[in-house]
Amino acid sequence: MIVRRAEAGDERGMAAVHVESWKTTYRGIVSDKYLESLKIEEREESWKKGIFHTKAFVAEKERGIVGFANGGRERSGNYPGYDGELYAIYLLKECQGQGAGHELVRQVAIALNHMGFGAMLVRVLRNNPSRYFYEALGGIRIGTERIEIGGDLLEEWVYGWPDLNVLDDEGGEK
């Protein structure tokens, strides 16, 4: 599996991973009705408009894109000292636990660091088991927020890395 910078033409693969990952990860957390409403074509159009507005990376196997992550400037301004944000990271379920997620986060952290950002945060639904992934990468819980998805009010936990350099090496944490 390789991780590389996302490029034009990757939007369809990223959209397919995005939709499939939501359906497998959020089943039982987000309403089935909402999950079934997700469409690859809509996500693809969104990526076509935004792929170059963020730092985006894809994980790829012989069969195509199996994961992606993207990040940029922290959007809310609610977390002083955290200037960067990991906007999204998704991997197909069968590709998790193989190191690609760690490498995707690392590449986003490196890109943000090179842009002059010193810290990064990520938001994750409280009931999403992926939160343990962020903890394993050294993320510390810095906040709680509420988000509405499909008409339901859900709790998000915010994890942060106050120093991106801890992710900017081959081993993850220093």
TrEMBL record:
<dbReference type="GO" id="GO:0005840">
    <property type="term" value="C:ribosome"/>
</dbReference>
<keyword id="KW-0689">Ribosomal protein</keyword>
<protein>
    <submittedName>
        <fullName>Ribosomal protein S18 acetylase RimI</fullName>
    </submittedName>
</protein>
<dbReference type="InterPro" id="IPR000182">
    <property type="entry name" value="GNAT_dom"/>
</dbReference>
<keyword id="KW-0687">Ribonucleoprotein</keyword>
<dbReference type="GO" id="GO:0016747">
    <property type="term" value="F:acyltransferase activity, transferring groups other than amino-acyl groups"/>
</dbReference>
<feature type="domain" description="N-acetyltransferase">
    <location>
        <begin position="1"/>
        <end position="160"/>
    </location>
</feature>
<dbReference type="InterPro" id="IPR016181">
    <property type="entry name" value="Acyl_CoA_acyltransferase"/>
</dbReference>
<dbReference type="Pfam" id="PF00583">
    <property type="entry name" value="Acetyltransf_1"/>
</dbReference>
